[in-house]
Amino acid sequence: CEDMIKIQAERNSVLPDAPPMFVGVNVSSKQILEPNFIEKIAEIVSDTGLPPASLKLEITESMTVDYQVVVNWVHRCRELGFTVAIDDFGTGYSSMEHLLELDVDTLKIDQAFVKQMHQDIKARKLVIGMVQLSKALGFSIVAEGLETEEDVETLRQMAVEYGQGYHIGKPQSAEEVIEQIKNGA
Questions:
Q1: Of 43, 35, 69, 74, nearest to 57 (Cα)?
Q2: What is residue 76's three-state secondary structure?
Q3: Counting CB atoms within 10 angstroms of each CB, which of 60, 70, 83, 95 has the fewest?
Q4: Please, are residues 8 and 54 in contact by the beta-carbon 8 Å criterion?
Q5: How confident is residue 96, by pLDDT bands cut at 50, 70 and 90?
């Protein structure tokens, strides 16, 4: 949270009119089941001064937990002002059924579909369908696994708002990100 505040401040000095940034944090099923876990996060966010909406909590395998626990947990996150994403959408435990009950903000399209969309027409149609479904339900979209400019351009044409992958950027420290912002990246 402290790093995100520093990164946002640097970006605001370079691009004062740009929309606020956010950081995604994966949350495990064990953490969802931990009593007061979300309150601990809220306390950290409050203590550091990070706007709650700048923290996007990403859930995946948590779908294996008692579903009502997950529904209640997501509801509590929303009450506290956090955004919530369903990570790896379309694979594993992430089912369309979850879209009925979970008040999430974002669907993250799993890289398994993105990586195949140029070679496999079915994969491309599935990505298109997930994007259309997300938009129809009012969710923002993150496409995972972007590794080429072709990936970025194809998803841009589909009106995907966010991308994640090595073509966008490799994992970096806060200091490296701040240095890139200072250098105009």
A1: 74
A2: helix
A3: 95
A4: yes
A5: confident
